[in-house]
Amino acid sequence: MTRVRALQLVLVGGAVVVLELLCRAGIIDRFTMIPPSEMLLALAHVVGTEPWFWPDVSYTLGNLGAAIALSVAGGFLIGLLVHALPRLRRVLDPIFTSYYAVPTFVLYPLLIVFFGIGPASLIVLGALFGIVAMIVATVTAIDRVPRVLLKVARVSRLGPVRTALLMKLPAASPHLMTGLRLAVAYSVIGVIAGEFILSTEGVGRRVALAYNNFDNQTMYALLVLILGFAIVVNAVLGSLEQALHRRWYRS
User: Fold this and answer.
1) I need a surface site. Which of 2, 39, 85, 91 has the fewest CB within 10 A?
2) What's the number of domains the chain is made of?
3) Domain that holds residue 207
């Protein structure tokens, strides 16, 4: 474990302990927040006893997987196209820069009109959240590809598709991980928030129901689950990014 990672764990652990003490001492009202230890116990109770837990988790994970795949694959392909067409890039750069300044949720009524209330709307919403981050990361990563590799591709008479897959993608992969992490994070936000606002099932829907019913035990249990999932995914992607950087610099 690196020194930075150890410090991060100490800070997070200290914050959890302080929050636990504040809740136990009554400084933070139980009506507002329950202690972190009770959140974990509530999560164990929900996992072990609630019949809706696993179907809703499966529903959300399915939507997340589809949204992440669509945003990452679509963002990479669109990024390749934008990078290959400088004029198109100049036109789209201002749009990419200001994209996240406009709440993507304003499109949700239109998504319901086109796709109805169901997984399709949530998947598209999650993909819309993450795809631009992947596009920008792809364009930036390809800018950093050594020109000698592109000359080798031309000398070898590789077509655009083979050049992208055999030259650009491996060389840009360490830098693409930043876009991948952002795309995953934004897709998770889009799907969970979409379920929270308007969905018939899913973890986000259960959080909304628990919130409306003042069921703090269930609400915080599910929030801990979402937070834990995000931390694990981010840690895995971070480790993969570091491994790619080490491999790239060694080569």
Assistant:
1) 2
2) 1
3) 59-250
